[in-house]
Write a structure and sequence with these properties.
Domain ABC transporter: 7-263, 302-552
Largest sheet: 8 strands, mixed
Number of domains: 3
Strand order of the largest sheet: 16-17-18-13-19-20-23-22
Distance between the termini: 49 Å
GO molecular function, one term: ATP hydrolysis activity
Oligomer: single chain
Membrane topology: Peripheral membrane protein
Subcellular location: Cell inner membrane
CATH class of the largest domain: Alpha Beta
Structural class: alpha/beta
Shape: globular
Helix content: 25-40%
Number of strands: 23
Pfam families: ABC_tran (PF00005), oligo_HPY (PF08352)
Strand content: 25-35%
Radius of gyration: 25 Å
Amino acid sequence: MLDHAITRIENLRVEFETKAGTVVGVEDVSFEIGPGETVCVVGESGSGKSVSSLSLMRLIEFGGGDIAGGRLLFDRKEGGEINLADVDQDLMRTIRGNEIGMIFQEPMTALNPVFTVGRQLTEGLRVHRGMDRDAAEARALELLREVRIPEPERRLKQYPHELSGGMRQRVVIAMALACKPRLLIADEPTTALDVTIQAEILALIDRLKRETGTAVMFITHDMAVVAQMADRVVVMFRGNKVEEGTAEEIFENPQHPYTRALLAAVPKLGEMRGKPLPEPMKLLGKDAVTPKPIPGTDEVLLKVRNLTTRFPVKGGFFRRTIANVHAVEDLSFDINKGQTLSLVGESGCGKSTAGRSILRLVEPMSGSIELGGKDIVALNPRDLRTARLDMQMIFQDPFASLNPQMNLSDQVAEPMRNFGTLKGKEMEDRIAMLFDRVELPRSFLRRYPHELSGGQRQRVAIARALALNPKLIIADEAVSALDVSVQAQVVNLMMELQAELGLSFLFISHDMAVVERVSHHVGVMYLGRIVELGPRAAVFEDPQHPYTQALMKAVPIADPRKRKSEKDLNFKPIPSPIHEVGYEPGPSEYDEVTPGHYVLTSDSGY
């Protein structure tokens, strides 16, 4: 027992009232966090880890939960220890944000879309700290610098949608730290972020914790992040704590079978050394060996040449174009039938824009895209619609891409209705077959998206993408927000489908260990260009470009004895991709280092 713990959770029990009766979210959980200590709470979705943190913030009531038992002791700055379980909401409002800060998983939902970043950052300071406008703005600028946001003065005037995911998450962290809380709760704060930004944000939270003595409760399912951050680890499974210990104890000598399975399922960078083809991932508790490695074919399905996409920046009184965002610059690659090309890079490097440009969800400025010999760029709207039968997209956030008011069967049927491919009984059979394919029970056909977990929703999104029998699927961060175990299932599912249906994937991701598992070829993107492209083994085992090397170095390792310190991460901030009108960058020129392995030679600025 710690003498002066900042927070102590004792025998917490949380229940939810549903139509089907009482559901227990957390059964009986106790642990404590001392000053300057990071306790990582790990487990899969549904294990009760977020429920515990929402109970501490007393936000669980707003989500239909009820603290049915136990004590939540919190040591305040002044006024000693109180039990948060019986505090009224008025006092909670003072404590929330002021003494307990929270970083949520999804930065877009944590920020208010109608207020500028500056307004949202200064609000807490003015409410809790009684600062005037100028003092609050000065502190906001200082906070943005602390979380290493480039051009902070400009960012204060921007709205959340103008920032990339990584930038938004940094703003959320700055907001949580604004009032120097005693306890910081970080709920999966880096799940949706790139390796490099994740490494920086972890180092940032760690540094702030050391400087301020804040206690940190860090919720995650990523064991590599746990190894990087944790002083102590609490492992949760189905609403109970199954194991607790120091990071070294948990990683080197796990006692509970669930902890062992969790550690075994972690995809590790470098496991694929010497293997020429993609391979299925390990599943929790059982080793799946059914899908064989997938060779694919040598026939080119998608041919992209000199693709360039820019977005205008409007300004001034007449909203004229004053500059352009060079999101994708002179991109060329091929994807063969039945194979996977992965595009990796940090947020803001243009990988998602590249995927959207290929589907013409964003109009490219120049370049050619050929899918099965058809020139996609030259098609008129009617023919483009027909061409979309062959290409589909799976998005990062399945909740945002599914319609909350339609049941799942209708959502999977929608593409078939739109294109009139199947009707009546045939369509019903195909929907049932697709549900079988993505391993969802048929009883789910009548359910709605909110009744599913993240992994199940993502399977619905995959079923919907498969509805029209496409040749190419663009998966934009399709597994980045899922747990290790669910991620392995979804990745294996995608690979099985690839083997059986001969699908080609453009896999956009920042998770290097997953990319290493699934790819035939890998393209590394930086500032809108591919800086290195080649067969997976070549890029991973012999990275040539300095940026690729830096990216590989930032991947966290699931071993607490191999922690990265801030000085290992020598990332240069990404320069701005915004250039004045009339700026014309040079073409991308490559050296072929070994057959098929290309490295950018023209000045890439890294």
